[in-house]
Amino acid sequence: MESEGPISLNNKVFDPKMVNHSITFYHYPLSPPSRAALLVVRTLGIKHDLKIVDIFNGEQHSPAYLKINPFHTVPTVDDGGFYLYDSCVIMKYLSKQYAKDDSLFPKEPRKAALVGLRMYFGSNYLFPALRDYFAPVFFENVQPSTEKAKKFEERLQQLNDFLENETWVAGKDLTIADFCIVSIVSTAEAIMFHVNKYPNVSTWYKRAKEAMAPFGYEEIMQDGSDKFGNAFKEKLK
Ligand SMILES: N[C@@H](CCC(=O)N[C@@H](CS)C(=O)NCC(=O)O)C(=O)O
């Protein structure tokens, strides 16, 4: 699969009317969904003003932030007074609104549905299983639970099954679903899950890192995951 050649992506400001257009992206580098959406912003070449919301220090509960995102989460996007939260919603909107073609989020209904299905898996199953594992360690000062680790590993196995004979998580092309899932897998790896035990996940993960490298994978995804991993390790006895 590695010999397929370069993947064509939308990494330039493509539409002249976009040259002076900028969005505001509210971000926290340790947050996996925030990293996924930010890397899509970079991949699409959308100009953006980055605002860090330190969720470990409660900045997401400020009245000003709650006004634009009553769910007090990162990421949030402000596109000229149009406010959006939830990374999946953001990634879909930005792709539809600003991508020069539909490669990252296909228009064809069944392909789009498959992308949605994998993002649904990421945001409702894979990420919650990981959060159930790490959140008590961060916020309740308890040690990691082997039972919760097992539950997350069951989801990794499911991801491995989805990737059987597939190049990307939603089929033959790299899509926003890969950004969603890679943010979770890289975070899991940083907190010592052996993601390479799952052969399809391992091959896909390497491929995803290579494809996303030109758009800032190292700076946005790897660096955020490493920081997350270090913060987690500090909590271990
Ligand atoms: N489904 C949401 C989840 C976002 C989310 O849970 N963000 C967490 C960080 S990973 C957050 O901002 N937590 C702060 C809070 O809930 O107050 C998305 O994909 O954007």
UniProtKB/TrEMBL annotation:
Domain GST C-terminal: from-to ranges: 108-237
Record-annotated GST N-terminal domain positions: 21-102
Superkingdom of the organism of origin: Eukaryota
GO molecular function: catalytic activity
CDD domains for this protein: GST_C_Delta_Epsilon (cd03177)
PROSITE patterns: GST_CTER (PS50405), GST_NTER (PS50404)
Subunit details: Homodimer.
Listed name of the protein: Uncharacterized protein
